[in-house]
Amino acid sequence: MSLHEELPSCPYHCLHRFPRLVSASKNVCQQKMESGPCLALIKRYGYSVSLNKCVEFTYGGCMGNDNNFKTLQECEKKCLASKVYGKPVVQPVELPVADAAAVASGDICQMKLETGPCRGYIKRFGYDAKKGKCVKFIYGGCGGNENNFESRNQCKRRCKVQRSRSQK
């Protein structure tokens, strides 16, 4: 028996090992990125409705959904090439006031450090505005925000430039 079994009169895929319903008709680009229950660390790309662009996330290797592309180009071809009409399937996300101001000003170094909703375990660096320096944190592999760098040096370069500009 397959993990995915379609019933003739049901607009959902029924998942047997991990019980839940996944809409078969939901627009791929409107689905939230899902790492799935497995624990592999596979680099993939998905469309972020809130950022209006394709972003990298970590796929666990099984389950998840169709908002999961092997390359950035595949994601952009599918999700940026065509407009999606109708109501969005996801709820709008409210940012805390401090982060909303940081997003509006473009100062990612003022954004809080966010692990994101996925369950990966990826060492990353982000600027901690309270401490005034770049610190290590664990990123889950998807979601979060742009205050997320692969190395301490990348963080220092970006946020040092931000600090020197804002202090003038």
Description:
The protein has 168 residues and is α+β, with helices and mostly antiparallel strands. The chain folds into 2 domains: 4-79, Pancreatic trypsin inhibitor Kunitz domain (Factor Xa Inhibitor), CATH 4.10.410; 97-167, Irregular (Factor Xa Inhibitor), CATH 4.10.410.10. It contains 3 helices and 7 strands, in the order E-E-E-E-E-H-H-E-E-H. The chain has helices spanning 72-79, 97-105, 152-167, and strands spanning 4-6, 12-15, 21-23, 42-48, 53-59, 122-128, 133-139. It has a 3-stranded antiparallel β-sheet with strand order 1-2-3, with no helix packed on it. Strands 4-5 form a two-stranded antiparallel sheet. It has a two-stranded antiparallel ribbon with strand order 6-7. The N and C termini lie far apart (65 Å). This is BPTI/Kunitz inhibitor domain-containing protein. GO terms for molecular function: serine-type endopeptidase inhibitor activity. Keywords: Disulfide bond, Protease inhibitor, Serine protease inhibitor. It comes from Heligmosomoides polygyrus (Parasitic roundworm).
From the structure above, extract its key features:
Factor Xa Inhibitor, 168 residues, protease inhibitor, serine-type endopeptidase inhibitor activity, two-stranded antiparallel sheet, disordered N terminus, 2 domains
Task: Show the helix and strand layout.
Elements: E1 4-6, E2 12-15, E3 21-23, E4 42-48, E5 53-59, H1 72-79, H2 97-105, E6 122-128, E7 133-139, H3 152-167
Antiparallel strand pairs: 1-2, 2-3, 4-5, 6-7
GO molecular function: serine-type endopeptidase inhibitor activity
Keywords: Disulfide bond, Protease inhibitor, Serine protease inhibitor
Protein name: BPTI/Kunitz inhibitor domain-containing protein
